Amino acid sequence: MQKFAVSLLIFLFLIPLSILSSQENQENATPVFIRITVYPTISLSRYDYNNDIDLYEIRTYIELRKESQLGPPIQGTKITALGQTFDFTNSHYEKRIRVDKEQLPDMIEISIHTEEGFEFKEKVPIPMWLTLKEPRPQILEDKSDLKVSWEFSQYKLPVNVNIYDFKSGDSIENENHTDKTTIIIPGEQIPSETIIRIYVISSWFLKHYLHGDDKARGSEINIIPWSQVFLRTR
What is the domain-level CATH number for residue 195? Predict the structure, then answer.
């Protein structure tokens, strides 16, 4: 009986010590800097002309660093979203996830587990998609004026419009932070026998800062909708 009482006292004494030890470990844990950038992406055509027309993706890039955004990258982390596991590339994690254009998701849940025990799970909203309406993927046979138009699924935002010769890199037209939804490219500006890339991207980041003792200052989530198309010219 006396031996049992002593064991019980030791057990009761160790409980608060274990709790304090766990709390101390959490308090002393190195904070993690997180930057999540989600690109709801609509590609009407790839550079190889007719492959993957109307490719709808959620392109997600995640940066994890120790202590601050200037700290070393954290490797060996398991990151998942929509059932897909992210790949580590150079200094960040990334994944392109194809989605059904008839059922575009309005949010994704991102789960992060580092080898050091840091855990993060967040539902990230996708409040809108940006779609290039014109032009469709095609071969331009003449030097007619080219109409470029786009729309948001909701919550219209200013955009940056970039049109350039994909082979040479020469700019054809740029408009930044415009409220327009249509521009016209004069036919004489369109080069012959090349590939033209057109992309329209939201000029405002939809930003959400992350808080908590386990997260470094400045941790954030950014949502940036965009859309692109490639054309060939004779």
Answer: 2.60.40.10
Q: 230 near 164, Cβ under 8 Å?
A: no
- According to DSSP, the β-strands at 32-43 and 226-233 are parallel
- Can you say how many angstroms the Cα of residue 6 is from the centroid of all Cα atoms in its chain? 58
Convert the pLDDT of each residue in 176-220 to its tens digit. 999 999 999 999 999 999 999 999 999 988 899 999 999 999 999
Rounded to a whole number, what is the distance in angstroms from the first to the last CA of the chain?
Answer: 97
Virtual CA dihedral for 99, 103, 107, 110, nearest 10 degrees? -30
What pLDDT digit, counting tens, does each position of 54-79 carry?
899 999 999 999 999 999 999 999 99
Residue 53: inside a domain, yes or no? yes
One-letter identity of residue 225: P
**Phi/psi at 115 (nearest 5 deg)?**
-65, -25
Show the domain range for 60: 32-233
Q: How many domains does the chain have?
A: 1
Nearest-angstrom CA–CA distance, 190 and 80:
43
What is the Cα–Cα distance from 108 to 105, expressed in whole angstroms? Answer: 7
